From TrEMBL:
Gene3D superfamilies: Beta Polymerase, domain 2, cca-adding enzyme, domain 2. It comes from Ornithinimicrobium avium. Its EC number is 2.7.7.72. It is an enzyme of class 2 (transferase). This is CCA tRNA nucleotidyltransferase. Its cofactor is Mg(2+). It comes from the Bacteria. Keywords: Magnesium, Metal-binding, Nucleotide-binding, Nucleotidyltransferase, Transferase, tRNA processing. One of its GO terms (biological process) is tRNA processing. The keyword Transferase applies.
Length: 515
């Protein structure tokens, strides 16, 4: 069979498979379809749930389109749904819950942007075919009429799905003008579903990339997050860079293309960064059955767990993936040509951390994600000072303490940052990092390194020195912490003696004695 064509018999087989995938929800689909039909309205399952049924993928929500207006939708659902909500009423959408299933039912509609507007202007339609032609891509313009389960596919979305092609029902220019965010969605589907934008789609994206500027940062961020968490982020990022979308959303990424990485002359920094991302994804841990929120878009502090599990990074992990992608974005700003033809990027990790923080804030990421990703970028070169194992135990403790709850991600980021083709060098780097991790585990076992803190808390320090809470007490605490990191456990008596030795050298102590 030619993979580029989908004959009618294949269509029938695919439809049967999709219906089998939907089997658990068919009673609900039939029931809600009969409700709307009895009230004189049309109803169809549409978009993502239909597409995902053909792909055999789970679809958490059920999306419907209907001839009913929002008030009429509420009337039909009254007494049937456990609860409804109308936060999407302005866009024609009413949400509902029936048992453990969530439904979103939207009036036939068309979305369009004014030239300088960030919000779509909604116009209600009166038939399914007009609604489908206004949808973003043909693979999302397939519908299942209810309750009779009639498959409707006026734009050959099923054929495109079989060909892994991404096309628009209308001309791409009209589709992207209606909602410029659809260009980001095209890149996201490349990463998430393995769909390849058709040449005319890529051409329209390239010509209209600047139009993305009218879309709110929050909506752009959500598409970027879904792309980065997809099965193949590289594919989506390459679409963004090649079409100019990245210049609007993440300009630091295409800026890497012309920079030469001094450690890997066979790759520019752009290719190196994408490879590091691929390798970081490969190192993500599988989620445990009790892992809650795996793949959440927010940074999560790991809960208390066994030492063997505390550094796990269940995938897909947004923080690790963003850090891998952005870890070298400080290189263009720090590139220096050295005598003899060498190239250096001194302190690019510090510059990159500041750039990362600025870019993620501009995209309206939450504070914890901004903090976590920028911190990983800042720390990603720390391991290179380890040499062949010359660090003291004090330096190892500081490495762990500085990474804090990000240590598991830092382990994977550091390992991923080796993209050398020299197998002997790669093996040596891996063995050296193995050695560092073994030392960390030994110190954890001996010293409970996860919770390194002085043996005296703030109250005890205040009692020993006779000082109130404030900056002076904070200095004393930091000194004891530094000693703890340098020397290991001191015990309370040893910490008290060290605190008094430190206090005797402080000007405040001398002033107190004079008084």
């Amino acid at each position: 069979m030619d993979p580029m064509s989908t004959p009618p018999t294949a269509d029938a087989a695919l439809l049967l498979r999709a219906l089998q995938h939907l089997r658990p929800t068919l009673p609900l689909l039939t029931e809600v379809g009969e409700l709307f039909t009895a009230a004189g309205h049309e109803l169809a399952l549409v978009g993502g749930p239909v597409r995902d049924a053909f792909l055999g993928r789970p679809s958490p929500d059920l999306d419907f389109t209907t001839s009913a207006r929002p008030d009429e939708i509420e009337q039909v659902l009254a007494g049937w749904a456990d609860t409804t909500w109308d936060v999407g009423r302005d866009f024609g959408t009413i949400g509902a819950r029936r048992g453990d299933r969530t439904l979103e039912i939207t009036t036939y509609r068309a979305d369009a942007y004014d030239e300088d507007s960030r919000k779509p202007v909604v116009a209600f339609g009166d038939n399914l075919e007009d609604d489908l032609v206004r949808r973003d891509f043909t693979v999302n313009a397939m519908a299942l009429r209810l309750p009779d389960l009639t498959f409707t596919d006026p734009h050959d979305g099923l054929g495109d799905l079989a060909r892994r092609a991404l096309r628009t029902p209308h001309t791409p220019e009209v589709s992207f003008s209606d909602d410029p965010l659809r260009m980001m969605r095209a890149a996201r589907f490349a990463a998430q579903l393995g769909l390849v934008p058709a040449p005319e789609v890529l051409a329209a994206m390239t010509g209209m990339a600047s139009r993305l500027a009218i879309v709110s940062a929050e909506r752009v961020r959500e598409e970027l997050v879904k792309l980065v968490l997809g099965a193949d982020p590289r594919a989506g990022l390459e679409v963004m860079v090649d079409t100019g979308l990245a210049d609007q959303v993440l300009p630091e990424l295409p800026a890497l293309r012309l920079e030469v990485d001094e450690h890997h002359r066979h790759k520019d920094v752009y290719e190196h960064s994408l490879t590091v991302l691929d390798q970081a994804i490969a190192l993500e841990d599988p989620p445990l059955p009790d892992d809650a929120g795996a793949g959440d878009t927010r940074a999560q502090a790991p809960a208390e767990q066994d030492p063997s599990e505390e550094d796990r990074v269940p995938g897909p992990d947004l923080v690790l993936r963003l850090a891998a992608l952005l870890h070298d974005i400080g290189k263009p700003a720090t590139r220096r040509f050295e005598p003899g033809g060498g190239v250096s990027f001194h302190h690019h990790e510090l510059v990159g951390a500041r750039m990362t923080r600025s870019r993620l804030k501009a995209l309206r990421f939450d504070k914890e994600t901004v903090r976590a990703v920028s911190r990983l970028v800042e720390l990603h070169l720390r391991f290179h000072g380890y040499g062949s194992g010359e660090w003291t135990d004090s330096a190892v403790r500081r490495y762990v303490t500085d990474a804090g709850p990000l240590l598991g991600r830092l382990h994977k980021l550091t390992r991923s940052d080796s993209t050398t083709r020299n197998r002997r060098k790669a093996a040596r780097l891996a063995a050296t990092y193995d050695h560092l991790e073994e030392r960390i585990e030994r110190l954890r076992t001996e010293e409970e390194l996860r919770a390194v803190r002085p043996e005296l808390d703030g109250n005890q320090i205040g009692e020993v020195l006779g000082i109130p809470p404030g900056p002076l007490l904070g200095r004393a605490y930091k000194h004891l912490l530094a000693v703890r990191l340098d020397q290991g456990p001191l015990g309370e008596d040893g910490a008290r003696r060290e605190l008094l030795r430190w206090w005797a050298r402080q000007p405040e102590s001398q002033a107190s004695a004079t008084d």
